[in-house]
Amino acid sequence: MKYLFPLVAVIVLARIAWVGSTIPGMQNVFGIDVPYAALILFICGFCWRVIYWAKSPVPFKIPTTCGQGYSLSWIKRDKLEAPVNTTEVVGRMFMEIVFFRSLWRNTKANIQPGPVLTYKSTRWLWFFGILFHYSMLIIVLRHLRLFVEPVPFLIDALGALDGLTFNPTPELSVYITDVLILCGLVALLLRRFLLRPVRYISLANDYFPLFLLIGIAISGISMRYFLRSGVDIIAIKKLAVGLATFNPEITTNIAPIFYTHLFLVSCLLAYFPFSKLMHMGGVFMSPTRDMANNSRMKRHINPWNPDIKPHSYASYEDEFREDMVEQGLPVEKELEKAED
Description:
Blueprint: H1 4-20, H2 27-54, H3 86-99, H4 101-104, E1 107-112, E2 116-121, H5 123-143, H6 153-162, H7 176-194, H8 196-201, H9 204-226, H10 233-244, H11 256-271, H12 279-285, H13 287-290, H14 313-326, H15 335-339
Helix pairs in contact: 1-9, 1-11, 2-11, 5-7, 7-9, 9-11
């Protein structure tokens, strides 16, 4: 099964962190060395992928459009789906990145008895995608309070808004995003299990990030609500601030669930630049999205065109005429005439 190996891999990674963190002296490895190594790999890998994409030639205008393009002044056009200038491209990218506009417009084709080709909306996919991404964003922002002291007001306010109970003690609050992120991840995973066409094209590297994210969410939720024994928030805060200021220190024993959670997050960071999760950066580099649909108004010249000296066919034949005649290839000038 294509999903079995990724599932086992995530379980093994979690087990390694749980058992390894109980070995004396290994807390520094899982709490300091691994996070730093993962962060370096994430930054270097992310930059490498972006630079690699930026160097790719774009010889043609290839924006994807699904609306009326610019033509006559009295014909209404779609400024977001067929942008012709930078402002409209920025508007299109904003709607795509913030609201997942293309996923909202996405449809699924089905063949009904007859046969009849039908199309239906897949906005449930858009809903669960939004649910996961924005829950993840809020959770990451909430975690910033562990890395800074004093905690900014906006971070505290975000945590209060996210909590089901506006309690002055954050430890007593139940965060809405903890529930929503699991709902979003489980729905995206079930989509790959239950929809036959999606299951057919899904590979192990499609399941692994989902299982890894679910493992991170479960370990974090367990640490907060169920396995609180031995989770010293003061020691965790001190370690997090130390990591952020490059002066980390582990002074007390922290429960293995914390190191499991941190290790899975580190694995996600290290894996990120080499996975499909790089769509986070790739959406900004996609010529189908970030180019204006103005090929009839402005000539597109590939900025990556190399400066090559022209080599005409006549020059090519002058250079290789003897070899061409020897191989029986036709030439425009006979060898004797060329020598004369």
